[in-house]
Write a structure and sequence with these properties.
Order of helices and strands: HEHEHEHEHHEHEHHEH
Number of helices: 10
Number of domains: 1
Strand content: 5-15%
Largest sheet: 7 strands, parallel
Oligomer: single chain
Distance between the termini: 37 Å
């Protein structure tokens, strides 16, 4: 079977449900809106490209009684309005996928101004309380660093998962790189502090089937933040093959960028 399709994503959700996992939005986690005695998975989706794919994700989850958090970018004052409304119609949470420091070319003061404006644009549709940085791997600028001198809570924001989740107790998985072990290609979408420990514990999954097998044999972590990019999950075989090829090329470029940083 082809991996990273809508079918394989739904299968993953089904096995998580069968294994007794609670599904949390990011806000659910920070408000402790869950049973601490049961395993949970925080579902986070970054809407970067092919916005219609996030609608498919939202609808699949809604049909299964699952809520998750979708992070939308604001580019030149515009959002994917149609898709954002569809996500809200499916009763999911919306957050801001910010990249203001990159857009401001490292000017933190200007980044704060654009962050406020873009947040206001999103809040026309939803009372956004949680944000997460866009990695912008081709740039040396790390968008998270804009909070070194500014407190995002001043904007009514309650949390930024990269900065606020306790990863000593929550395992992080992301499909960055077009696989589940793409941290070796990722410039920023990883938890560098804990990744060596997770590797030592054998918590390495390449395919979605690897995760499913770990769930079925009871070796999968009980507390997980799972990040996806819906643009990568395609049923159409031609689009799927194109996405896989592009991702393969991007992984080589990311490895080159990482090697330069060393």
């Amino acid at each position: 079977m082809r991996d990273f399709t809508l079918h394989s994503y739904q299968k993953l959700l089904e096995v998580l449900q069968q294994s007794g996992y609670q599904f949390l939005t990011v806000t659910d986690y920070f408000q402790h809106n869950y049973d601490p005695n049961q395993p949970f998975v925080i579902l986070r989706h970054d809407v970067d490209k092919r916005p219609q794919q996030c609608v498919h994700f939202a609808q699949i989850e809604h049909a299964m009684g699952i809520r998750s958090t979708f992070y939308f970018r604001v580019i030149d004052g515009q959002v994917y309005e149609k898709e954002l409304k569809a996500v809200l119609q499916a009763q999911h949470e919306v957050g801001y996928h910010y990249e203001d420091l990159y857009v401001a070319k490292g000017d933190s003061q200007q980044a704060t101004v654009t962050f406020s404006k873009n947040l206001a644009i999103l809040r026309q549709f939803y009372l956004v309380q949680t944000i997460v940085m866009h990695g912008t791997p081709h740039s040396k600028i790390d968008n998270k660093t804009m909070w070194q001198n500014v407190d995002y809570r001043a904007f009514g924001i309650t949390s930024e998962p990269y900065l606020d989740i306790d990863f000593s107790t929550v395992f992080y998985l992301t499909d960055t790189g077009g696989c589940w072990d793409g941290y070796k290609y990722s410039v920023r979408d990883k938890i560098a502090q804990f990744q060596p420990l997770w590797e030592q514990q054998g918590l390495i999954y390449h395919s979605t089937q690897d995760i499913i097998l770990a769930l079925q044999n009871g070796t999968f972590p009980s507390r997980v933040l799972l990040t996806t990019h819906p643009q990568r999950w395609l049923n159409n075989p031609i689009l799927w093959a194109k996405e896989r090829l592009i991702q393969h090329i991007k992984n080589y470029i990311k490895q080159w960028v990482i090697s330069l940083g060393r």
